[in-house]
Amino acid sequence: MTPRYPAISLAALLVPALLLASLMLGDQHVDIAALLKGEATAEARIIVLDLRLPRALMALLAGMALGIAGTIAQAVMRNPLAEPGILGINAGAAFAGSIVIVGFTGLSVTVLPWAGFAGATMMAAAVFLLSWRKGTSSARIVLIGIGLGAFASAGTSVMIAFANISDVQRLMIWLAGSIYDANWDKIRLLLAWLIVPIALVCLFYRQIDLIRFGDDVAASLGQRVNLVRAGMILLCTAISGATVTVAGLIGFVGLIAPHLARRMVGPGHALLIPASALVGGLLLMAADLVGRTIIAPVQLPAGIVTALIGAPFLAYLLWGRRHVPA
Amino acid sequence: MRGVGRDRGLLLALLVLLGLGVVIAAQAVAIGTTPLSLAQVGEAIFAFDGSRDHLVITMLRLPRVLAGLLVGAALAAAGAVMQAATGNPLASPGLLGINAGAAFAVILAMALPAVGAATGGGILWFAFFGAAIAGFAVHVLGSLGPNGATPLKLVLAGAVISTFLTSLTTAVLIFDQATLDVVRLWTLGSLSGRTVGDVIAVAPFVGIGLVAVLLLRAQFTTLSLGAEISGGLGQSPLLWRTISVVLVVLLAGSAVALAGPVGFVGLVMPHVARLLVGADYRWILPYSVVGGALLVVIADMLGHSLFASQDFPVGVTLALIGAPFFLWLARYRLRGA
Fold first, then answer.
1. Which residue, B176, B170, B163, B114, is CA-closest to B134?
2. Within the 7-66 window of chain A, which residues sit less than 8 Å (CB to CB) from chain B?
3. Is residue B198 scored above 80 in pLDDT?
4. Which B residues 173-212 touch A at CB under 8 Å?
5. Cα B206 from chain centroid (whole Å)
6. Residue B34 to residues B61, B122, B197: CA-CA distances in angstroms?
7. Nearest-CA neighbor of B202 among B70, B68, B72, B76?
8. Do residues B305 and B35 make contact, with C-beta atoms less than 8 angstroms apart?
9. Are B330 and A140 in contact (CB < 8 Å)?
């Protein structure tokens, strides 16, 4: 059988390659072959198994989650610029995070992830509730999301403008999104959080296909539009809220992964969801690898590098394709 | 006949809004740590006598209010043009990469002493050219390929280039605490310390841009109907998208040069206008211009009287004051939903 989707098949092959590279590259060069044969030093085992492997896996997982969340957001909002941030998730998490970093310097390390999660979910809930008037509409959710997001961002801006400068710097690093403190516990936590929402998304992919056509079409084809929209927003919030908890605010992946995937497999969500997950995971894993090696020993947050890697790639795709489906 | 009556009503309301704008702008000049009367403001402008009060008015307060008017009008007009040209309610002037380009250029000038010295500290022009280069890069990237500039390609290219430049900026700021400390107020948008010279340097660009936008408002209405309808009416999509980009760069580039990357107005004011007057850009554009100018001046005035700080970034006050109003509008006035 000839591969129908060469680009996505290639992307799938890139995952193990990138994983291997993540394990080998870094300050300490590690011989993976020796490790597999059980001949490596204890030090090398710790570096690979307890530091690099969880970090790479977490980047993969978080990237996949963001890719899926972005796909849902773009379909439900019917807007190519939609991303999980449109629900106010990023602005809410940023505001909560900035309060913790600036206001409670002592406890920030332990509390920060949960503050981010709480901010994200509370904002998403507020956006949804405020846009509920005998049902929801995508247009209203978009506008309310803009308004509430601007409000929360203004709060974050006050912190940036007037707080102690070293707190501001720490805040900016957190806002950029990073996965530097990955460990196996966090991966287990993330997996436990993600598995049910992602399974539900995959189960209901036909509903996502339908809602993309517009409320009227979807309703006339028998969809309970408000129920599906509410459910999808809930899933999107759960998925991206979980990534905020482990990785901070990683933007861009949720916006760009669905577009890259759509150019590889087309608009049907049966293929688009797994493809977005794959692209998102690859992008974040590559970003983290580049971020921690390119100017080592200094580490660039992965959230910054995603755009530096993803932007030229998308530019290439825009350049190369003559036919551009919405 | 109903249409004519509605047009008259809208025109009347616009004129009332304009009059209100003049009064509030004059009031904004009068309010401050030394409260002055409106008569003194008039004297300072038309019969300047060199007294301390007159100096305060002409050197400090008037430039600040004028800068606010220019920035608000320019950003709101640019935002309306962006939303008309892309057909996307999430489009704002910042989406053309203008804010990100300006911020990156300014931070580059500050972080690299050699570059900064070569420009002689001309932050204003640095911001303007950064914005212009980013804007045209977005346009070129978004127009690639035989289809030309489709709205989707334009907004995607804009989102990508903005994020790219913002990432570079953040990367610099994370490692350079001194620059972060200097520019953090600028990056939020601020009107404090703007001089008469700054305002005069930028005013012609904003003026040309605003006049062009208002003269071409019927064309932008056609453009907003989408490529198929506007093409069917004989409008060349490529030509008009290019004109839109040039105007947005001119307007928003001037605004960001004058006040830094002020958010919110460009994104929200066109929505406010649309929620009030309907989908017709012949009305959305003038209402956005007047409303944007008014909003920025009010926000700046409230910002430094409520928070008792001359430096309080106007971008923040704008969102704090404007967002609740916008939320109310979006919840209760959004039609067809």
1. B163
2. none
3. yes
4. 173-175, 177, 180-181, 184-185, 187-188
5. 10
6. 11, 31, 24
7. B70
8. no
9. yes
Task: List CB contacts of A151: < 8 A, sequence separation 6 or more.
Answer: B319, B320, B323, B324, B327
Q: How far is A255 from chain B, CA to nearest CA, in Å? A: 9
**A305 Cα to chain B: minimum distance (Å):** 7
For the ranges A110-114, A188-192, A236-240, A277-281, the maximum mean pLDDT occurs at: A277-281
Q: Which token pair is A106?
A: 């002592």
Task: Go through chain A and tell me how many residues it has.
Answer: 326
The domain spans of chain A are 6-301
Quick one: fold of B64-333?
A: ABC transporter involved in vitamin B12 uptake, BtuC (1.10.3470)
Give the length of chain B. Answer: 337
Rounded distance, CA A199 to CA A202, Å?
5
CA A239 remoteness from chain centre: 8
pTM (predicted TM-score) = 0.81
Q: Helix (H, G, I), strand (E, B), or coil: what is residue B136?
A: helix
Give the other-Cβ count within 10 Å of B182's Cβ.
14
Who wins on pLDDT, B182 or A235?
Answer: A235
Confidence of residue A67 (pLDDT cuts 50, 70, 90): very high
From start to end of chain B, where are the E strands?
A: none
Chain B environment of A79 (Cβ under 8 Å): 88-90
Distance CA B183, CA A111 (A): 29
What is the C-alpha to C-alpha distance for residues B332 and B223, in angstroms, rounded to an integer?
Answer: 27
Residue type for position B146: P
State the residue for tokens 């690898």.
Answer: A289
The one-character DSSP state at B293 is H
Cβ neighbors of B330 (< 8 A, separation 6 or more) are A131, A140, A143, A144, A147, B271, B275
Q: Give me A83's structure tokens.
A: 């991303």
Of A173 and B4, the structure prediction assigns the larger pLDDT to A173
* DSSP H helices in chain A: 6-24, 32-36, 42-45, 53-77, 89-103, 108-130, 138-162, 165-176, 184-203, 205-211, 215-220, 225-247, 253-265, 269-293, 302-320
Mean pLDDT of chain B: 82
The ipTM value here is 0.76
Q: What is the pLDDT of residue A281?
A: 93
Q: Quick one: CA torsion of A189, A191, A197, A201, rounded to 10 degrees?
A: 160
Between residues 233 and 292 of chain A, which touch chain B (CB distance below 8 Å)?
251-252, 255-256, 259
The token duo for A303 is 């959230």
Maximum separation of any 2 CA atoms in chain B, in Å: 65
Residue B284 belongs to what H/E stretch? helix B281-306
Q: Which CATH class is domain A6-301?
A: mainly alpha
Sign of CA dihedral A85, A88, A92, A94: positive
Q: Which three-class secondary structure state does DSSP give residue B35? A: coil
Higher pLDDT, A247 or A69: A69
Count of beta carbons in the 10 Å neighbourhood of residue B42:
13
Calculate Rg over the CA atoms of chain B. Answer: 20
* C-alpha closest to that of A94 among A175, A178, A179, A165: A175
